[in-house]
Write a structure and sequence with these properties.
Helix content is 38%, strand content 31%. The longest helix has 25 residues.
Length: 104
């Protein structure tokens, strides 16, 4: 599973941030490891320097073997909250996708 972390110009992307989120994704999505080819995470701040509620965005795109890519987005007050919100959505989508495949 290849993981790529991207940030816009309003979010500081450093090695520590990349390592932390990469590890979290590997741990949380380990059961889908053989099905996932690549994960791309995009962090953004919708309002730049202005303060606003729910202006931090996390988009997680998952590329699956022999399937269309899945993408989820979550907005929150902080990058961390938006990441964990998007991660929960990805887990639900993957669970649903592979549960439907087992039924057929």
């Amino acid at each position: 599973m290849q993981i790529q972390i991207n940030t816009d110009k309003n979010v500081e992307g450093n090695e520590r941030l990349t390592k932390f989120y990469t590890t979290e994704l590997q741990n949380e999505l380990a059961r889908f490891d053989d099905k996932i080819i690549r994960i791309e995470v995009h962090f953004g701040d919708e309002n730049s320097d202005k303060y606003s509620t729910n202006d931090k965005r996390c988009l997680i795109e998952v590329r699956l073997a022999k399937k269309q890519p899945l993408a989820v987005t979550d907005f929150a007050d902080t990058i961390e909250k938006s990441f964990y919100g998007a991660l929960e959505k990805v887990k639900k989508v993957l669970d649903t996708t592979y549960e439907k495949m087992r039924e057929y």
